What we know:
Bound molecules: thiamine diphosphate, iron/sulfur cluster, magnesium ion
Order of helices and strands: HEHEHEHHEEEHEHEHEEEEHEHHH
Strand content: 15-25%
Radius of gyration: 22 Å
Amino acid sequence: MNDTTGQTVLDAGRSPIDAQATTPLPVAVATANSEPKVESDKAATGVSKPAVADDKAAPGDSKPALVGDKTTTGDSKPKTAGDTKPTSPPVKVPGGNRLGLTVTDYRGADSTLCAGCGHDAVSSHIIKASFDLGIEQHRVAKLSGIGCSSKSPAYFLGRAFGFNSVHGRMPSVATGAGIANRNLILLAVSGDGDTASIGLGQYAHVIRRNLKMVYIVENNGVYGLTKGQFSATADLGARQKSGVLNELPPIDLCGVALEFGATFVARSFSGDPKQLQPLIKAALAHNGTAVIDVLSPCVTFNEHEGSTKSRQWARDNEIPIHSIGFVPHFDQINVDYDPGTVKEVKLHDGSRIHLKKLDRDFDPTDRAAARRLIDEATREKLFLTGLIYINPKSEGFTDLLDLPERPLGTLPDAEVRPERKVLDEIMESLR
Length: 431
Ligand SMILES: Cc1ncc(C[n+]2csc(CCOP(=O)(O)OP(=O)(O)O)c2C)c(N)n1
Ligand code: SF4
Ligand SMILES: [Mg+2]
C-alpha cells in the first residue's frame, strides 16, 4: 500500500475528508452492463447485493472503474495510496458528489453473502457515507480479518486498496499501514468472532494506541462463516437454532472499548441507515480509533426465536439515545435543530456532530456517563444505540510518534537506510 513512485505527497496530516476537490478520481464511463439499480432505504433485506440506502444519485448504470483504468475520462493517471496531490478540477456529473463521482462509483464487487445478511446492509451504508463525504478511494485502505464480515470490504469502494489479514490480526496490519503512510484512511471491518474472540488482544491494543482508523464490528453473535457457533458476544441465555443454550456472559465490545481507553465508541443496527450513516461519517472525521459496534444479523444461523441478534429482535428492542446528524467541515449548511435540545460536538477538522436529545439527557463527551449508560443497558437488557462516547480532542497514534510530515512509505531509500558506517558504529557500540 506504499506510494512506490516517490511522488511528493502534500498536506500530510490533513483530515481524510479534508481534501476537497484536490484529487478528483477518474469518472467511470457508463457501460450498458451489470450493476443492479440502486435500491432505497430497505437496505439489503432479501438482496445479496449491497443496496445503497437513501440513494438519489446513480444516473444510469456505471461499472466502477479501477484507478488509472484506460476506459475512464478525466485524469487517468494512476493514483498512489494516500496521495493528496492536487490535479485537475472535478468533472461535474448530475447527481455526483464534490469529486464528480456517482454513488455507483463507490461500489465494489457483487456480494457473495447470503441474501438478507446484515453485513450487506452495512456495506451499503459505507458506500453512501463515503459518497456523501466525497472520500477519495485511492487514499483508503480497507482492512479486515477472517469471517463473512471480513469478506465484505470486497463489496464496497472498489477503487480502494485492501488487505484481508489473518483471523483476528487486522489491527496489527492496520497499525503498520497507518504508520507507513499517515495519509491513508484506514477503514476496517471485522466480526464479533474476529474481534471479541480470537482478536480481543489486538482490539485492546489498537484502541489503547488510538490509531486513527474506523473500526466497524459487524456483530451477529455467531461465527457465521464456520456455520453459526456462538461467539464471545452471544448473550447469556441465547439459543442456537439447534436449541443449544449459551451459558457464558457476553463481552460488550463498547464496554471494553471504553475500558481500553477508546476515544470514539458507538453502537448501531445494520437496518438503521439514518443513524449508522452519520456515525460512519463522524468516525471517518475522528482523530483516533473510532469503534462502531453494529448489530448485523446473520439470517442463516442466528435469525430464529430465542436469538438476541436477529433482525426482529433488533427492530423490537432498539432504543436510540439521540438522533444524530453530521455536518462535514466543508458544508456550511445551517442545521435545523431547536436550540436547547441539541448537543453539538465539534471535531478537530471542523466537522460537527449534532445530537438531538430523545427521551434521555445524555452527554457523549462524559466518559463516566458513557460507562453508566452501558451498565444500564446490560442491567435492563436494553439495546441502546447511538454515539456512546467521544473525545473530540483525541490525538491519534501517528501524532504521538513524532513521524515526519511526509509518509514513511514515500521516503526514498537514501533517507530511510542508514549508511554502512552508521550501522558499523551501532554494532561497535554494542560489543
Ligand atoms: C486462526 C484461525 N482460527 C479459526 C479459523 C476459523 N474461522 C474462520 S472465520 C471464523 C469466525 C468468524 O466469525 P466472525 O468474525 O463473527 O464473522 P462472521 O462470519 O460471523 O461475520 C473462524 C473461527 C480461522 N480461519 N483461523
Ligand atoms: S452465514 Fe450469516 S453472516 Fe455469513 S453471509 Fe450468511 S447470513 Fe451473513
Ligand atoms: Mg459473527
